[in-house]
Structures
1.
Amino acid sequence: MSSLDDAVALYRRAHDSPEALKSLLSTLKSSKEPPSIQFDLSRHGFCSVEFATLGRSFPPTTTAGYTLSAWVRFDEFDLNTHTTIFGAFDASQTCFILAYLEKDTRNFILQTSIRGSRPSVRFKCAKFEPHRWYHICLIHKRPKPTSSSKASLFIDGEFAEQLRIEYPSVPYSHHPNRPPRIQAFFGTPQDLAMRLGKDVSTSRWSLANGLLFDDTFSDDMVAVFYNLGPRYYGNFQDCLGSFQTYKASATLNLRNEHLHPGKEESSDIVTAIRRRASVLVRESSILINVSPVAVLDDDDNNNVNESQLIKCLSKQAARSLQQVTKAGGNAVAINGATPAINDGLTQPQGVGILTGDPIVEVPRSLDDASWCLGGCAPVHLSLIQAADTAETLKLAVEALYEAIRDNWRNSEAMERENGYGILAAQLREKLGYQFGTSAIPTKIPLVTSNAEQCSLTLELLKLTLSFVGYDFDRPNHSIITNPLAYRILLVDMDVWRFGEKPVLDLYYSQFRTFATESNYRRFNARRLGRMRKLPLKSIRHILRI
């Protein structure tokens, strides 16, 4: 679909067409890929985003070190070529950093010099696999008088391995008042390509975002970076809790309670997600922030309409954009370290040049489109209201959960608009329970037999449990990720307690799973205990059933 009008047509059709509703659900599930820049070496043998300068000295000598953070997906490995991820160097290569995956082992390699007895180290903790997104974070601390320099690798928010390696050397400046120019890149520049030409390499990998900081961060902050996901591309200056999905929030809260018992409120996690992350991440510490949503070219029909953008720029910035994209023929990535586009286009470190024709993909997910159309909640709740068969009701409920599950905007919209309360009322009505009564069943409008009613109720219960964190494949990994939905749709809703035996068995057993059998039972029990409609003594009674 090329526009919101197409999404409008699909949602309208889904109100009265089961096939359109199935298509909508399928698209919701499959359209959540993040924007990305794909470096495909088969086109020219090289492919990169290159920054002519970082605009300041590097490596840092006044902070604890530097940090490299990137969301990456390896689409295809070339057995004859290393997969270069990032590099930085000065003209003399006194300062030299290269991060890549080794062609044979697929281990992460960090190289910090081109000379010396041990110029590089191999992190053997992980062999990276194709076709999945990884969050890679490297924290390299400079040496202290009593200790040597160490580099720590984090994969998907968790510490993986720490190795000793020389800190990059500080290059000599020929101008006392001007630091030496440090170039940096993501991908494989032409100068580093093993061979040039079409189809000389099959290496392809994608970058959702890449950041370089001139500072180091705690393990907790690395976990926050990871849990924001590959669709986040900001500078970490806000209250980051607003950008989290329910699963991310639960994961970080669990980590906080486990690692900082009794001191939860003073941890970096709480500071970042409930206060302001700018206290921990200075915006001035960001040297590079590359994102595909900030790529500008000479095509007005893709993610950015440059003809309209130019009208908002200064003359110098507009001239610079036209010179690069039209005269040079290259697209540019605005460096998010300079948040204003106008500043980025007028500063030497403000843009990265895309060389070797990287493929920029900026898909619009359908869950985002539902938020643009009407804030998600009314759009999807209307589908549930329109459902007139058991099958369309299940599809509509699953579509709503899918639109919320991985989208922080839609999660906020459901809470703000009392979406869960409305959904609970809709389910009661669709399952045939009167309002204002003690949940006495009446005629079921969507089914014709008790067996069909039991099947429908059981399917809706399974969908709801999965949505709030129940893991049917691994019940001992179940964690209550969405306590508000859990309380309104499971604890407060009495329709489940009037179901047939399969419904009753699942409904009551899930309390036991969450509170006593899950690996996260203490965390779950605390959340259950806080629910005003289900005091802890009631939970204990249920667990004895």
2.
Amino acid sequence: MRIAHIGPVATTIPPPKSGSVETMASLLTEGLVARGHDVTLFATADSKTSAKLFSLYPHGYWHDEHMWPWELYEMLNLAAAVERADQFDIIHYEAAYYPMSLAFARLSPTPIVQTLHHSPSAAEVKLWLHYPEAPFVAISHEQARLLDGLNVVATVLHGIDTDNFTFREKPDDYLLFLGRFTAGKGVLQAIEIAKRVGMKLILAAAEDDYYRENVAPHVDGLHIVYYGEASFDAKVKLYGGARALLYPIQSREPFGLVLAEAMACGTPVAALDRGAVREVVDDGVTGLVFEDLEQMANDLPRVFNLDRRRVRERAVERFGVARMVDGYADVYRRIVERPRG
């Protein structure tokens, strides 16, 4: 198939450090090319891909304060693909923030499918219902439920390149929090858990206002340690060395990529039962899912006792990138072969 894959233009694809949407866009693009599909990736010029690369911008707006408003940069990148629609069998838009691709759904002669990478509000879904025919791919059943009324054609869980995540059987003696510093990610709750069990906690994420105002006062460099934003190699080492990844999520996340990544290193997870957590974590195998912080603090030793080799094996079984690529290729095929009325 001839596929236009539209990634965000905030930073490179793949990203230099963090960036789950950019990471997924890269893995899917490379996987589709490896299958023999003719893929054009719409991204920044400093992106690296084996697909054809179409670029309007030399770099992303995360790296250039003059690239404002960011929405216009995203819109023009999307429009560039739609303007070339007759060159493709399908257009796939990765909606990092919201599916602005809906505005082109009835204008493009080529079908557009969209993947959303956050949990939408009821008000957002109500607005998107102006295009009930536009196909969405959900990244979890939790997200599919929130997209009620829209045309969810499939649910395809994220995949990761498990070969690049090194298994470590014997960890060091620390806990890990890895994710953006926001109230919804539960970093303060992770700090509370670490203090209650008397263990060192490493915090790995980019510094922001929330960190400076709410998290930094707890960092002492001994028990609560701020690592900073980790490169991919550093992230893998942090995962592998941790006794457990703490995921006391407060918001209803539609997936939780760090869960799969940690498990691919053999590191079990301790997570609160929110959003799609139970779709990612095999409770009692790759981690434990808790109802509240009290239960997590009391039963954390049970997480440490899980078989790290089995954690790794299960992660490879469930989250290998090949499964994700197969899922999207099947979606494309069904949409392309469907008569358009």
3.
Amino acid sequence: MVGRFARFWRDVIRSYRKISSVRWLILGIVVGLLSGLAAAAFFAGIEFFKHLFLSSWAGLSLPAPAGERLFHGQAGTYRPWLIPVMTTAVGIVTGFLISRFIPDAIDGGTDGTDSMIKAFHRHGGVIRPLVPIIRGFTSILTITTGGSAGREGPISQIGAGVGSWIAQKLNLSAKERRILLLAGAAGGLGAIFRAPMGGALTAIEVIYLEDFEAEAILPAVLSSVVSYSLFTLFFGTDPIFGIPHFSFQNAGELPFYILLALVCSAAGWFYIKTFFFLKYSFFNRIRKKIGLTATMAIGGLGMGLLGMSFPELLTGGYGWLEKAINGEIAITVMLAIIVGKTLATSMTIGSGMSGGMFAPALFVGGMSGGLVGYAAHEYFPQIVTQPGGYVLVGMAAFFAGVANAPIGPLLMVCELTQGYGLLAPLMLASALCLVINRKIALYEYQVGNKFESPAHLNDSTINILETMQVRDFYRPGVVPTLEEGTTLKALTHIIAGTDQLYFPVKNDKDQFTGILAVQDARQVLFEESLSELVLVQDLARKPDYLRPDYDLYTALIKFLGSDLGEIPVVDLDFHIIGSISRADVFKAYSDAIKQLGQEEE
């Protein structure tokens, strides 16, 4: 028995080292287990302290979605004035902890998700363990005291920190570290949303504006599934929202979904512009004068005063979203929530307090969609029969437009509703929002695609060589050639009279049949006994050539594969029109690297 176990363990280790898919299978599972535990602890902390601070202390009875009613009990004495007191105190605590222990995290971007994106592109996938620990703790305080922030940003940073930590402990390469960072983020998102596929795809696509990290799909999916499964052991498999089934059955609704996309795009533009205006034109200027802690205290105070007078703006707001889906919120209130939530989130996250922009974005998007759905239902009840579905479509479409991540949120909504009945309008509205809002972005450290990322600098260089053509670098003109029947004796005189090292070889029909490299003839070059016996055709290699329209990457591969220093360039009729050397290609390669480096600076 012991021998069998030992053999099995040796096979596992051997497979881990030699088979990449097995390696990512094991690493994805490990990251998923740890990120799932982190997500469960984070979620439980939020739910417990939210009940303590907002229900027991402040006396508020905020709605909770059906899948998240963990703590029950009668609300305490109504003390709304405690809300600004608590949010201000959290601002002070957050400012002190960040200034004292992780000052480098001050400029981490929009939120925890953006910090994860920054670590992927600019820091080689390295996240200091203290950063997600402090940001996670302060996010719990921010959200549970009423700050307008979501838990998805912090948990993606926490999960990414788990993946980065494991990679560092195993001494993995920078590339592998980045992939595990995304796998950890996928695990956190898949668990906290109870949407394993949506969480995985969101993590690998949100880092780019127009691309996704294909190499991370396997570990990200594994991590998300394992994390989700572990999370549901603690909190069950029920979706977040307790809502009826929605389906798209009437093509006459398409114009209204197009209108929804227009409204969500406008709301997204307002959401992003307001956030960055308050962050950079207000809070950053204040921070330079009075410091980070005082600035966060001002942000917390402003948020608290807003929340005290308008409770719908407090925390993530999923309970209010469920009410909107079920038709329990008036249209005028939805409009007020869109504006108020944008301001509240900008004050909370824009001042530097911890939390995510994901949930507030879904909240604003859902209300924007509900605005269209319930207004259309009011005037066209025969066509728009399920206005609550517009709230769900608005959530995905809005986030697709502001975060340039259409696939993950779309699948998340399908997983939240446990069906694909709204898939067609989801795709239509998300695509329109993506196009309309293509010039704005919620996350500051997103890059266009892989070839704009420092993480893929080598890939970028190869891509540049693929855009360069031989016609721009070869030397046109007559190239000295040899006849196949040229003797070794005649070859000796030809080589002595030229500095050329590579000769195209032709037959008696003037056809290009091979290449003679001087180094190939060197061993017999001065053998007098062979001077009339050995011919050029005996020494020549098989023909290798390039055409003017070939790219330089093809040329590079030919040089590396043939060990030739120069290759003839031929036209469509196979006539030699010039040559290109290995040095020409390497110089183009070097220039490409230098240019990329200058652009990065």
4.
Amino acid sequence: MERHKIRLLADISAVTAETRGTEETLKRIVDLVAKRFHVDVCSVYLLNEAEELELKATIGLRQPSVGAIRMKKAEGLTGLVLEKMAPLLVVDPPSHERYKHFAGSGEETYQTFLGLPLAFHQQVLGVLVIQTVERDAVSEADIPVFSTIAGQIAATLAYGGALNDLQKFAGKDGPRPASGKEEQKRPRRSGIVRGIGVSRGVAEGRALYLRGTIGFEQIHPAQSRDPGLELQRLDDAFRATRQEMANLIEDATGLVHQEQAILEAHQMFLSDKTFRNDIRKRIHQAYTAESALKHVVGQYVERFRAMEDPYLRERSSDVEDIGRRVLRHLLGSETEPVQAFREATILIGTDISPMDLVRLRNEQLKGVVLSRGGRTSHSVILAKSFEIPMVIGASDLFEFIQEGDHLIVDGMSGLVFDDPPEVIVDEYRRLRNEAEAEFKRLDLLREERARTADGTEIQLGANIGLLSDLDLVKKYGADHIGLYRTEFPFLARRDFPSEEEQAILYEKIVVAAENRPVTIRTLDVGGDKFLSYLDFPKEQNPYLGWRSIRVSLDMDEIFRTQIRAILRVSPLGDVRIMFPMITSVKEVQRVMVILAEEKEVLRSRGVAYDEKIPAGIMVEVPAAVRILKYLLNRVDFVSIGTNDLVQYILAVDRNNEKVASLYDPLHPAVIEVIAEIVALCRLKGKTVTICGEAASNPVCGYLFVAMGADRLSMNAAAIPVMKDFLRKVSLKEAKATLERIKTMDDTDAISEHMAAVIADIQREETYPARAVHR
């Protein structure tokens, strides 16, 4: 059961992270449990301030009973559960001496009662109750299953912020320890920040701000409980900023008089009493120092920009710069750029580029928390490859966390604990131990092929971006390299690598793959991947602009250099070359001409290469889907890039938090398009691989296999989980499910249906045959 606690915690924690408030959270939890286990009633009773058990949420009992049903701990079967502090199973509850009937609840029709205490670290919270119509629907054998659920509900409620008494676990309101820094901190509303978990795992370390990403756009209006403390923090920040400016002026060498005068003008502005008094007035109105600073700086910027004199208008940027410097000191941020981490570190920022993540990766970088970001951004993809837990969309991040704080980051639930108490630290240590045990179990499958329960073999590949990722390929038992993203080495450099440099790198990749097939994708930049040494145009929508194959075809010599480097390593193994973001036959024709010409160049040099190297394309835009029958006549294989394909089909910027919830690979249009691609490829006898984040999702993977895809490529760490899952899947049943899904026109209906299907598959192996009523 240990390995299933992790999955149950993931489901319930995800509900908690997505909702706010006890009522909504509990309602979704009982709904989840009832659907997952097909029970007739699932209810949660919590102890209220009067020490009464109060019905807080239910599926199965009549909704007016919520809040109306209350009982003392000495009353009813529910109270008996707390008296015994042990699970209680009763068949024919009305015949029990402790049975208490509540008129109008509708519970008289249920023939079984299973109650389980909700307790977390000796803190009694309430009772979980399961009820069914049939007398034999639950038995003693089911108690361990539901005890696990009760334990995870209790833990999640306790540290997830759903209970009113959260401060018992996450720290009382008021000034907190300084985490090794001398400056005072403002009181916090809670010790928890909520975001979206996008790279699984648990990280623990000290908060460190990512320079250049913190600005006033991350500061929201916030009230202060202690204006005196806020005024002191403001004075300290101004003092530190003035000292910083003085140091800059003193240490700067080679500055002309005009440049030095600019720094001195900034320093004078910091000493302006009117400016600081305006901020102090705002603080006296019960705003935090950060919020007051943002408000006043904004006012000054608007005044300067409204001036007629061009010189004075330009001074608005000076005010913004001064304000940002003060803000950094308010947040506790040091001013020097990040070079190396001296201790376990959690990076905090607005966003992080793939290049920065590559640059900053080291053993001490334990996790990343961002106020923005997209679920399928390339930074997220890299974080998964690096096995770095990441949380995005933590919008109130900068109101809670200061540099140097001790953090625990849950990349699964999206919860970030700021200076957590010992009970939270202990709980996550336990979870880490369970995760290690789960890895050891899955590691037994590493050398086995992925097969469905009825014997169909599925090749599971890994998506990689760096040479070091090959260690993960071996660690997790990938069959092939489904996608090698060549742009990541480009991102880490200051100029384009030469043919020789690229050939050396690709040789290392192919040799280290140890005879596994390696699909090398040519340079895919643009979108959210920019080369600092390439002059990208400023575009309103870079995802629809100059990117990917368009860049390569425009920069002909750079493209040809990369193709020659790939061809040179092709004799060393099973190497394939792939071209991204194809939208027309003309593009494929141009690419194939260039490929043929570069083969001739190498032939003339006497350099060996694979004359028959397979050449393929990525299908990731709707245009390619519509003309796929023509494209397939010119290529050897296809890879479906689900990240971009979903984005373009649904017209959703996957990195835009305003519409990110609309990005869903289970949209009927997405399912139909991918099924169409797979069917046409099979008809034409072309190999098709499905890659991207969707490929690592068991729900999507189930449907992809049903469509006939026999190659999936994903983040390496997801391979053991997918391999384990596919062993329980019947291909025949999967095809029947796909046909059922194709008749549905609503994403939510598809998601709900597939959740039930996957739960049944997992339960077949997980729980006793009589564990739930069906």
